[in-house]
């Protein structure tokens, strides 16, 4: 399955649309496909992996900042640049999100979602 693609109709969401639509709202909320209307959700397992990959470099910010200091940047600018790079990386990683169809059986209250 390709990233950012509707599993029902194959409609590929642009990066910008995906970002606007899914980055700033509840990550596990459902939505209807813009193209075919199928009820979709974000692949939670993949989202967790992406979150780890995306956030891990935040630990490197102090090292990046001191690295940029080597280029005679002011400390604030070095930190801003380091934070900017890590944020850019996180957004980039997020673009590899995958979508799944929401199956009615999985939304039954009190039932564990089945992993497929
Ligand atoms: Zn669709």
TrEMBL record:
<keyword id="KW-1133">Transmembrane helix</keyword>
<protein>
    <recommendedName>
        <fullName>C2H2-type domain-containing protein</fullName>
    </recommendedName>
</protein>
<keyword id="KW-0472">Membrane</keyword>
<feature type="transmembrane region" description="Helical">
    <location>
        <begin position="77"/>
        <end position="96"/>
    </location>
</feature>
<keyword id="KW-0812">Transmembrane</keyword>
<feature type="transmembrane region" description="Helical">
    <location>
        <begin position="48"/>
        <end position="65"/>
    </location>
</feature>
């Amino acid at each position: 399955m390709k990233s950012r693609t509707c599993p029902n109709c194959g409609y590929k969401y642009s990066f910008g649309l995906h970002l606007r639509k899914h980055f700033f709202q509840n990550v596990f909320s459902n939505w209807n496909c813009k193209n075919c209307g199928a009820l979709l959700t974000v692949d939670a397992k993949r989202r967790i992996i992406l979150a780890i990959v995306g956030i891990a470099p935040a630990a490197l910010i102090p090292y990046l900042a001191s690295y940029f200091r080597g280029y005679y940047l002011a400390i604030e600018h070095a930190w801003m640049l380091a934070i900017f790079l890590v944020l850019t990386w996180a957004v980039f990683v997020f673009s590899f999100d995958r979508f799944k169809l929401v199956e009615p059986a999985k939304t039954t209250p009190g039932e564990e979602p089945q992993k497929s």
